[in-house]
Amino acid sequence: MWSFPRTLSFRGGVHPQPRKQTTRNLAIEPLPLPRRLYLPVQQHIGAPARPLVAAGDRVLKGQVVAAGDGAVSAAVHASTSGQVLAIEPHPAPHPSGLPLLTLVIAPDGADRWVDLPEPDHALSLSREEIARRVAAAGVVGMGGATFPAAVKLNLGTRHAIDTLILNGSECEPYLSCDDRLMREHPGEIIDGARILRQALGAERTLIVVEDNKPEALAALRERLYVADAIQAVAVPTRYPMGSERHIIRAVTGREIPAGQLGADVGVMVHNVATARAVHRAVRHHQPLVSRIVTVGGGAVARPANLEVPLGARVQDLLDHCGGASMAPARLLMGGPMMGQVIPHARVPVVKGSNGVIALTAAETRSADPGPCIRCGRCVAACPSGLTPLEMASRIRAGDLDGAAERGLADCVACGACAYVCPAHLPLVQYFQHARGALADRREQGQHQERIRRLAQRRRERQEAEARAKAEAAAQRKAERAARRQRKTAGKEHETEA
Amino acid sequence: MTTPTPVSGPHTHAPGGIATDMTWVALALLPATAFGIYLFGWPALNLLLVTVTSALAFEAVCLKLARRPLRPALSDGSALVTGLLLALTLPPWSPWWIGVLGAGFALVVGKHVFGGLGQNLFNPAMLARVALLISFPLEMTTWVIPQPLFTPGAPGFLEGVAITFAGAPVPDALTGATVLGQAQTGLSQDLGLSRSLEGVYDPLHQALGWIPASLGEGSALLLLAGGMVLLARRIIPWEIPLALLGTLALLATAFMLVDPECHAGPGLHLSSGGVLLAAFFIATDPVTSPATRAGRLLFGAGCGLLVFVIRTWGGYPEGIAFAILLMNAMTPLIDHYLRPRTFGRTRRGRPLEPTQTAPDGAGRRP
Ligand code: SF4
Ligand code: SF4
Questions:
Q1: Residue B340: is the preceding peptide bond cis (ω within 30°)?
Q2: Which end of chain A is less packed: N or C, by CB atoms within 10 Å?
């Protein structure tokens, strides 16, 4: 067994109450096909996909309905067979909170797949072929980051990657979808790991699981062969273990320099659910059309782990789980630490949605913020080594530059500081607000710079025109003078004559 | 700043809050307080009640003047703890106006002039105690020998009221010097410690609190127990008490070994003059102590060093209040210089070199 050297871990972090016991032992069950599916064209970081079908078209399960557009983008596939009813803006779980262009599909109930090529168990596929199939399947980071997986694989071509990490830490409270996946489909995850490793040429592959999931570890280890050179590694349970920077630090001891990526220190991290999607994409040519979602929280009557067709709405999931037993104080997509509040249950499940959590007021423990008492708990909790209290006080004083100078850019928005703050200060909110304001200001600065340049160009043009006019006038004057001179000269000549 | 929507995470929170912490601090002080009241009788209880009530009243008045809502601030327990701590550091038979003035000074000058909870530079209770000591040296150094409740010779309820509120004089026979005071007087008269402390310093009495002392510094054991509760619940950081007591013990031991006739040992230093009360309950005040681990270690060590220096070479036999105030003043500086290393950056704030291993040497690349 791989023992975990403590010295490699990261500083800070917190131990939020895990609250996973209600769902961790519930087997994954399929969500029955809902009446409508809502597929936003942007379920990933990057450019929105371009719709390939029109309202009224019939589509088959797995058919590409929107193609990736640009260098960083991902295709969207129909998650069941049926008819496209409309392509129009709809509410979506997107950080901006704005409606997104969405394909509305009415399932026909047959759930018929498009023709897929024969499964391919070839041992050695070229990196290009793997990346091509992953891209064709529209796979994105399924831990919530939603970065297109194929683009990330191609990053590996620019850097030597010696270590591949599969992130099965699932450090967010309530969530157990990755846990269930590792317990129920360890083989698919391990095969995904083999494929990814091959694509990256990594020497060492680690599947990293927090030690509060012993069954998942056991299930993985049972399927691993020594010859695989893939290890299942237990790490201590500590939030935010799942953060890319911190999991790399915890298992390899390498620290990603500020402003760089895992690839810069030779490590690539993929979520275990992404590995499974890669397995399906590469071996079975199956696009990403469903994902596992934990439905939990005290306001849900019957918590569950569901295999959900992408595009099902949160309401469908809640209905399947017996509805909300009470009006939730907060409805979230994702875990309670970094998840997003969704305004209502009409938003669809997308590729990065790992949880639908309906919290009661008792669970949110929200309280009115009090004054900062400088207790330093936020400093002790911050995994990025920042001093959140100072950043917060500067932001409150309107000193955004001061906050930036105190490391705002190094904050990973994990919320560990706000979780422990006895004054209940909404620290992450301050930081996000300040970041937004700084970005706006930069943009504004650029805008003003552009205006200044335009104005200058206009001035230059006007000056040039004026100069040209003046020159022309001068020339005309000179010509006139010359003519006059010639005339007078002629007259003189006449008089002389 | 108003809270902009949409709300960002985290959407759950650790249990507890400021009020919970303050309640625990008050609870942890309870045994020592109760014992102090037992030892010094009705006048001590009167003084405690007067001080705490006036602290709450002054808090309310200040909030009102600043047009801030009363409820959240009054119910967070911070004024209560300030009043309690101040009362515990006063001579137990002080007249009522000492408590009122002290509480007023602590809350108005020590806290609200700075802008309220979280803004003050100095610990309000210590600031008030020092102000009282300088203004009323006589009242602030009249220490009575313990007169436990319901023992013959102890003042009854009415006599207690007379002592606290009517300025009834404290009979000379009942007063005594504190151990530290005795030691200093002895040294100034060229008596060795072994002679000047004869019959005054008894380690057992000292530990149990059977000594002339302030209301709350009495029982070292009960204070220690309260401190341990707060440590176990992680309400106070361990760095400050450890560094403070460790530094003081180290210095005391070193000097005692050099010259036992001039320097008292660590036992006396730690168990007297409210050092334990300060180490666990006052120096750990979050507002006025550093926010980082390194900073707290330095802060605690600084307090310990200053206590020793003031006691040994300074004019006041007890130095803890001055020591804490001086270190409070250093806190902004400490917080400015001692900060954690940012992830992915060097101590100076530059991004790490790409292939550089973590600065603690872990994870060297093959
Ligand atoms: S945890 Fe909250 S109260 Fe404590 S120092 Fe940080 S911001 Fe202030
Ligand atoms: S949200 Fe930012 S400041 Fe707060 S603990 Fe996480 S990284 Fe540190």
A1: no
A2: C
How far does residue A253's CA lie from ligand 1's centre (Å)? 29
- Cis before A348 (ω within 30): no
Best residue among A412, A420, A427 to mutate for probing ligand 2's pocket (most ligand atoms within 8 Å of CB) is: A412
CB atoms within 10 A of CB B312: 17
HEC profile of A125-188: CCHHHHHHHHHHCCCECCCCCCCEHHHHHHHHHHCCCCEEEEEECCCCCCCCHHHHHHHHCHHH
pLDDT tens-digit readout, A386-440: 999 999 999 999 888 888 888 899 999 999 999 999 999 999 999 988 988 888 8
Q: Do A249 and B343 touch (CB under 8 A)?
A: yes
Whether the CB-CB separation of A352 and A366 falls below 8 Å is answered with no
Q: Is the pLDDT confidence value at B1 over 70? A: no
Per-window interface: B 279-308 vs A, CB < 8 A: 286-293, 296
The minimum CA-CA distance between B108 and chain A, rounded to whole Å, is 17
Residues in chain A: 497
Q: Which two tokens stand for residue B9?
A: 């995470």
Domains in chain A: boundaries: 32-107+124-290, 368-470
Please give the class, per CATH, of domain A32-107+124-290. Answer: alpha beta
Count of A-B CB contacts under 8 Å: 200
Global pTM?
0.85
Cβ contacts (< 8 Å) between B366 and chain A: which residues? Answer: 162
Look up the ipTM and state it: 0.85
Please answer whether residues B311 and B317 qualify as being in contact, where contact means their C-beta atoms are separated by less than 8 angstroms.
Answer: yes
| Rounded-to-integer distance, Cα B328 and Cα A189, Å | 55
For residue B97, pLDDT over 70 is answered with yes
